[in-house]
Specification:
single chain, alpha+beta, PH-domain like, four-stranded antiparallel sheet, 8 strands, 30% strand, elongated
């Protein structure tokens, strides 16, 4: 099952304004070069449209642009709320922290938090959470 990332309004503005600014050299007669700005815009679009999470069998696949990670759901110990600003696979400040293995952690922001947790708990009912 696929869960797209929740998207904050402020981050929506930042990303889309950045994308627009990247295309200014295409239409200006100045010295700006689209050689560097268009790939940046492409990267931001890739992040925007691909950030999401998929529960596939006994694995949780997290993806944001070129960044991907596979987490065995059986290794997930705890899912809790977080407002961490650490780099993550999330387009929202309202995130879930997933702790797995001995020291692993990842931050995600699924639109449907309850459905996401239910999908994880179908595979691993021992996951601790205070979100239900």
């Amino acid at each position: 099952m696929y869960f797209p990332s929740k998207k904050d309004v402020w981050l929506t503005l930042v990303i889309w304004l950045s994308i627009l600014v990247c295309f200014i050299p295409l239409f200006s007669k100045g010295n700006g070069s689209p050689i560097t700005t268009v790939p940046i815009a492409g990267f931001l679009l890739w992040l925007w449209f691909s950030t999401g999470y998929k529960v596939e069998g006994d694995m949780l696949m997290v993806k944001s642009g070129p960044f991907r990670r596979s987490i065995p759901i059986k290794e997930i110990v705890k899912v809790s709320r977080s407002k961490s600003l650490l780099a993550s696979y999330a387009l929202s400040i309202k995130r879930l922290e997933i702790r797995f293995g001995k020291y692993g952690q990842v931050y995600v922001s699924p639109q449907d938090e309850q459905g996401f947790i239910k999908s994880l708990k179908k595979v691993n009912p021992t996951i601790q959470t205070d979100l239900e």
